[in-house]
Amino acid sequence: MILSCLCAVHCVLGLVIVAGLGLGSTFLLDPSIHRYGLAAATLIAGVAIGVGAIQHRRPAPFVVAMMGLSFMGGGLAVEHGIEEAVLTIIGVTLVAAGHVLNIRPNLLRR
Predict the structure, then answer these.
(1) What is the chain's mean pLDDT, rounded?
(2) Do residues 47 and 54 make contact, with C-beta atoms less than 8 angstroms apart?
(3) Residue 1 and residue 22: Cα distance in Å, rounded?
(4) How far is CA 25 from the centre of its chain?
(5) Is 38 in contact with 76 (CB distance < 8 Å)?
(6) Which segments of 3-104 are extended strands (E)?
(7) How confident is the model at residue 75 (pLDDT cuts 50, 70, 90)?
C-alpha cells in the first residue's frame, strides 16, 4: 500500500516539477526508470494481492486490486507520457484501495 502511494506521488510530483519548473526532466521522466519501477511494483502488488486473497478469502479486495493491476499493465503497454501516467495513477490507486479493503473489511458494509 505504501509503494502504491509513493508511486502515485512520484507520478504527480514528477509531472508538476517537470512541467512547472523544468527541473529533472532527464531523470524524473526517464522511460527506463518508469518501465522497471512499474514492472517491479506490478510484480510486488500481484504477489501481495495473491497472498491476501488466499488468507482473507474475500472477493471484493481481490477484484479491486486486480483491476488496479490491469491498469498498471496498461501503463506498461503504452508509450511513455501522459497516458502512461494516467493509467499508472489509476492502477496504483485501485491497488491501494484493494489493500485498504483487505485491512478494513467493514468499509464495504456501510
Answers:
(1) 76
(2) no
(3) 30
(4) 21
(5) yes
(6) none
(7) confident
